[in-house]
Amino acid sequence: MFRFLAGLILIGLLAGVTEGCRSTKKIRKVITTPVVKKDTTHVTVAPVRDAHADSLLVIRQTLDKLNHNHIDFNTFNAKLKVHYEGGDGKDYEVNAFLRIRKDSMIWVSVNAALGIEAFRLLITPDSVKILDKLKKVVRLRSVSFLQDEVHLPVDFSTLQDLLIGNPIFLDTAHIIFYKDEVKGGVSLFSSGTIFRNFLTMAADGTQQHSKLDDTDPLRSRTGDITYGEYDYSSAVPFSTYRKVSVAEKSKTDIEINYKQYKFNEPLSFPFTIPKNYKRR
Question: Which domains can be identified in the chain, with CATH numbers?
């Protein structure tokens, strides 16, 4: 259960891959032979098409759409239903409550059977605190604990973006190529210092699928995030369904349904450690 909580915080609280695709377009300059049309009076030369400039234009327009859908906020709270399946074969389904104060803290309450609170968690940019209310135990850790448990190199900002639904591990300065998808969608392939990210977006710039592969050839770490069931009632679209998989030596799968959510309401983040709790 403890590993489940780490996974829940990191990748759980956080519409499958598009059905088809067209040709892949790499960012490169293509030398095109001018098309010459002759008649008896004059010669017309068709303009040379700059494929490199065309590719850069598509990528820039796609990133503009993605930036337009970026979720900015002060506070966020949500009610979630989470299904978790770990590499050890254990399977959990729980209800959870999530609260975030931007760049400051992430608060999670996980309910067990009959609506009894089993765990409460508080994450700041440099710490993780977990109250196990069933065993009356408190665990105090640095934020690197999350990285150790789920094998992903995240900081507080990355975790925050993952929970809110903003892109993660997308190096916009190193887009290698793009690919046209069905119904006007586009996929971007970026190569960052940690992960290569193949991000598929719909025509309106909403994320549909993100495939992460480790750039380290000595590791087989991968991540897979699917976004779906977008709610368009807010200022920007919000994905109310997520499926997240992380694999290296073992695989973890989490499905999340955001049942309710609200932005920018006054929130409290209660976290009191009872005196009779053991520290581990």
Answer: 2-14+21-27+50-279 (2.50.20.10)
